Structures are given as C-alpha cells and as structure tokens.
Amino acid sequence: MELFEHATRDDAPLAERMRPVRLADVVGQRHLLGPGKLLRRSIAEGNVPSMIFFGPPGSGKTTLARVLSNEIDARFVSFSAVLQGVPELRRLIDEAKERKSLRGERTLLFVDEIHRFNKAQQDALLPHVEAGTVTLIGATTENPAFAVNAALLSRATVHALQPLSEEDLLELLRRAVSEPRGLGRPEWLEHDALLARIAAHAEGDARRALTLLESVALGGTLSEEAVDDVLAGKRLRHDKSGDAHYDVASAFIKSLRGSDPDAAIYWMMRLLEGGDDPLFVLRRMIIFASEDIGLADPRALEQAVAADQAFRRLGMPEGLHPMAQCCLYLACAPKSNKSYMAFVAAQKDVERFGTLPVPLHLRNAPTKLAKELGHGKGYRYPHDEGGFARDVDYLPEKLVHAKYYEPTDNGVEARIRERLARLFPKKRG
C-alpha cells in the first residue's frame, strides 16, 4: 500500500484525510502559488527543480511536496532525516534509477527535516540531484542558510512558506466540517464563530487547527463549551532550538536596548512560557547589563548577577520575581555600549600592531639587572601626587594618542566623561 493511500484511510487523522491532492485545493502561500508566480509557472510547465521548503510547522511543506508529485506525475518517495539513514537513502536512490531507466518515471524524493542531516549525509544526495535521478524536495523549520550546506543549496531553490492566515485556516476548517472525507457534518457550518476561534488559536498551523477540530468532534458536538475545553490546553508555538526561539530572544534584547520595559517583560515571559531555560534568559541579561548599559549605570551588572544568584536559590516560580525586577531595571537604565566598543577597538589594535614594547617607565623592575636596563625608571606614583600624575603616557609610543573608550553623556558616564576631560585635557579636552 502506498504511503499516501494509507494516509487517506477513514481511520487516518483528520489532518491527513484533508490533505490536498491537487494544486487547486491548496490554501494559502499565495506569494508562491498565486497567478504568475514562478513556482506556479514551473508546476504548470512540469519543470519542477529541486527545492527546499522552509517554514513553520503546519505551513504545508509536506502537502505541497505531495501536490507537486501529483501535478508532474512523479513517484512520491518520503524519507525522514530523523528516522532513516544513508543505507535506506541509497536503496531509494537505486529504485529511482531503476524507475527512470526502465519506465522513464520521475521520482520526487521528499526529505523531511533535512536540517537533521549532517554534512556527509547531505553530500550523499548531491550527485543524484545533479544527475536528475531524483527531484529533491527538502523540508525544514530551520533557516536553510544555517541548516543546509552550501553545495546542496546551490543545486536547489529555497522557498519560504508562511504561517497560514486565520482566513485560510477557517476555509480549511469549513471544508473539514462539510466534506465526506472530513467530518461530514455540514450542519456545523452554522457555528462559524466557533470555527473562527479554533482558527485563531492555531496560530497559522493547519495541522494544529484540524487536530483541535478533531478533538472537539470527539465529544460529538460543536459547542462553545466543547471548544473552551479543547483550547484550555493551548501551548505557545516556540521551538527552543530554532528560529522561533532566536526571534523572540532577539525581540527581548532589542526591547531592553530600546528602553521599553513593557515590551521587555512581555518578550521575557514569552521565552519562559515557551519553555526556554530561565538560566538562558538570566545569562542574556548579565551580558546585556555590561554590553548595552556598561558604565552608564554600573549597578545594572550587579542587578543582573544578583538576579541570577537569587533565581538559583529560589527556583521557579518564586525566581520570577528577581528576574522581572532585573528585566525592568535593565530596560529603564541609561544605555551605553562604550565599554564594549572600547575592548573591540583595543583588540583590533592588538591584532594590528602585535606585541608593541612596554614603555620603560611602566615595566616591572624586580632585579638589579632590570633596574640597570631602566625598567621602572621615571615612573611616577599617582598617590604621591594627589591621586593623579599629569602628563604621563601609559600606552606604547605608537598608540599614545589612541582613545578606545569614549563615554557618552548618559547616566554615570556623563560624570566619567567630565572627569577624563579634566585629567587628560590634551587628549580629551
């Protein structure tokens, strides 16, 4: 029995039974499949190249691959990069060669979660994709630029699939309710507002929308109470190791940097409610306190380290209190990245000029020979001159005019800027 035939049996999940078979049945992805779009033209011409489908769960990657195989009359062969290995892949490739040579039949090889392949496994596909033995369709929720090696990307076009709109999901739910292959209950179309609630809670995921509807149908009625019961177990869509994680983490840091406490606390809770490790969030706040606040408010780093220590003592949920306090403090604090910029600039000069000699007056003089060589000669002890010795150079001669640290006028740094201007008027006045 073919996999697709098995997936459309009456006892298959609703999401499988409702999977479109032809392009005309596909809902959403108009940026790829709308009139005149390149992918749609390729399908119409029967000239479908190898492709990578990149998109969130439930956006239709598998469905579109199946539809493509039907539209170009190719054998659909599915391969899981998680569950199957290279030996099984070689067997499928050999069968594809045989079909092509004996019957002229094309094979569309669908590799689910292609980002799970290591470089060697991805390289094993290259000659067969290049020779046209198979048309490769890879599916991934990870950014292909990072998850798929360059050699394979150069032989495939990348198409980004988007989460389905609520209107698209509502259309799918209406079909599932009314069509015989679905629930076969057209009378439920009267409850369009309830179907719309399910569509809204699915967050762009067609599979989730149909699974929620199927869960409601198990109770035998489509009612507000039944929908409430099913939606009560809703979880945020958040992949702790994928793009969703990095996007939310990026929004968190940028909200802190933008001094918006409301946005910062929201995105922090999105990370935590999505299942991220609180220690990851605390680590990011410690880094932020130094990198983005620095000496504009030196207490920021103390707050972040204290929050980390407090959380380790308290755990969840009490540890949320110091985390929230720290998040809001960092968001409201004056900002400066000048300490970060200072070490980056100094690092570049170290790499550029190498091991410049230490000025003699700054060298250590622990031995008689060192003193005879002039080590430490002429060094002026600042405390003997009221805490600061004027007109003393502390950098190598080649870098004597370098300024790595440029304080801002924000917070405490404004006072630091004024003091340095007084101490070094030639350099900073």
The helix/strand class is alpha/beta
Q: What is the number of independent domains?
A: 4
CATH homologous superfamily of the largest domain, by name?
A: P-loop containing nucleotide triphosphate hydrolases
Report on the biggest sheet.
5 strands, parallel
Tell me the span between the first and last alpha carbons: 83 Å
Detail the poorly predicted runs: 1-7
Q: Give the fraction of residues assigned to helices.
A: 40-55%
Gross morphology is: elongated
- Rg is 31 Å
Supply the CATH architecture of the largest domain: 3-Layer(aba) Sandwich
User: For this structure, what is the CATH class of the largest domain?
Assistant: Alpha Beta
Helices and strands, in N-to-C order?
HHHHEHEHEHEHHEHHHHHHHHHHHHH
Tell how many strands the DSSP assignment holds: 5
Topology:
Layout: H1 3-7, H2 14-17, H3 30-33, H4 38-45, E1 51-54, H5 61-71, E2 75-80, H6 86-103, E3 107-112, H7 119-131, E4 135-140, H8 144-147, H9 150-153, E5 157-160, H10 166-178, H11 192-201, H12 206-217, H13 224-231, H14 243-257, H15 261-273, H16 278-293, H17 299-314, H18 320-332, H19 338-353, H20 368-372, H21 412-423, H22 425-428
Parallel strand pairs: 1-4, 1-5, 2-3, 3-4
Helix pairs in contact: 10-11, 10-12, 11-12, 12-13, 14-15, 14-16, 15-18, 16-17, 16-18, 17-18
Description:
It is elongated and about 95 Å long. It folds into 4 domains: 29-160, 3-Layer(aba) Sandwich (Rossmann fold); 166-231, no CATH class; 243-332, Zinc Finger, Delta Prime, domain 3, CATH 1.20.272; 338-428, Orthogonal Bundle (post-AAA+ oligomerization domain-like), CATH 1.10.3710.10. Strand 2, helix 6 (86-103) and strand 3 form a beta-alpha-beta unit. The protein has 429 residues and is α/β, with parallel strands linked by helices. The protein has 22 helices and 5 strands.
